[in-house]
Amino acid sequence: MAKKIAVLVSGGGTNLQALIDAQNRGEIVGGSITAVIASSPDAYALERAAKAGIPGFVLARRDFPSARAMTVALVEKLRSLEIDLVVMAGFMVIVTEELCQAYRNAILNIHPALIPSFCGRGAYGLHVHEQALAYGVKVTGATVHFVTEEPDAGPVVLQKAVEVREGDTPEVLQRRVMEQAEWKLLPRAVSLFCQDRLQVEGRIVHILP
Ligand code: GAR
Hints:
By secondary structure, the chain is an alpha/beta fold. The protein has six helices and nine strands.
C-alpha cells in the first residue's frame, strides 16, 4: 500500500512544487501526496496544491490559544487523514512534542544549511543565508533530517553542499541552495522513506540499498 504523505507549508511552496513535480515524474516510489496543510490561508503553496488536485487545509497558529493546542489539532488532522509521513517543506511554525510523539521517525524537514551549522531557533528562511554570509563560509547547502523535539537536531537523512560565491546576497544564495540542493534532496528523501529504505539507529540514518 502506498504511504500517505502530508506536506506542511507556510509560504511560497517551491519545495512542495518539487515534490509534486517528482511525483508526476514517478519519482516518489511507494508514496502519494494526499494532503497539504498550511499555517496561513495566504500561503501560495495552497494554490500549487489546488492546481495539482491535492486537498489543502489551513491550521493557523492565531486560531489557537497556544502552540500546544495547535499541535494537538494538527495531530488529529493527520490521524484523521491516515497520514504515514509528514513532510515539513518551509513550515515556519514551532510545534510541541505531541507531533514528534505521534510520528516518531516519520517527520522529515528540509533545512537550508549544512546542519549543525546555521540552524536552531531563529534560523529559518532567508535568515539562514544571512547568517552563512555574515560568517563568511565558502560552502553551505541543505539538509533533510528527521524531526525530533529539539529544533533542527534530529537524525540527518541527506545533505548536499553548495558553494558560496563572491558578491552573493541572501536572496541569490537562497535560490542557488534551493535549485542545487533542496529541490533534489527532499523528493529523494521522501521516496527513500516511502520505500522503507531509511533505518534510524540513534543519530545515524542508514540508507538501505
Ligand atoms: C526553504 O528554503 C526551506 O528550506 C526553508 O524555508 C524555505 C521555504 O521555501 N525552511 C526553513 O528555514 C526551516 N527551518 P518554499 O516555501 O519555497 O519551499
